[in-house]
Amino acid sequence: MTLGLRRWARRLLARLNGTDILPEGFSGTLGADEQVLAVAHGDTGSLVATSTGLWVPDDGTTRRVGWHLLSKASWNDGVLTVIESAEFGTAGSAVLLRDHAPRRFVLSSPGRVPEVVHARVTGSIKSSHHRELPGGGAWFVQRKIPGQDGIVLQVRADRGADEAVLEDYAAEVAEQLRRAQDSARE
């Protein structure tokens, strides 16, 4: 089978399965059960949306950002803008997050990536609530993490919020949620 025919057959099979194929030169390593959902090409390289996250170009390599760590994504005029969060600690069973600066990807060939990103980011959110606290507010977001059972409480402080106050309150909320879940199981 020639190389061209092999590529064509792989693309056809991927489309029939509702998936996509990795772009040439992709430097990441997919997980065993990770499926490619969509591929986009842009000015800084390819973006690959999978069942577990968004693979983005980063300093000459490619890295995966889990859907649960994308706090915001928007698509406008050929530009996908994403805000990635980083875990910096825990408060009880709550995970504390800080947002990175927005990253912009100019996509010349977006494919289905904007739609998949929107669906996966919003689909991972089970509930969200903003709470004003002494010293600033915070977002309390319950999310599903691909490949893990259950829901995780993530807490992201507003810019300038007092993280010490937030940490104590987040631990209390996490404990209340745990008790409510335990009661529901009984």
Chart the SSEs and their pairings.
Layout: H1 3-16, E1 36-42, E2 45-50, E3 53-58, E4 61-66, E5 70-76, E6 79-91, E7 94-99, E8 103-109, H2 113-124, E9 125-133, E10 136-144, E11 151-157, H3 163-185
Parallel strand pairs: 7-11
Antiparallel strand pairs: 1-2, 1-8, 2-3, 3-4, 5-6, 6-7, 6-8, 9-10, 10-11
Describe this structure in words.
This protein is α+β, with helices and mostly antiparallel strands. Strands 1, 2, 3, 4, 5, 6, 7, 8, 9, 10 and 11 form an 11-stranded mixed beta sheet that branches. It has helices spanning 3-16, 113-124, 163-185, and strands at 36-42, 45-50, 53-58, 61-66, 70-76, 79-91, 94-99, 103-109, 125-133, 136-144, 151-157. It has one domain. The protein is built from 3 helices and 11 strands. Strand 3 and strand 4 form a beta hairpin.
Descriptive key words:
alpha+beta; eleven-stranded mixed sheet; 26% helix; 186 residues; 11 strands; globular
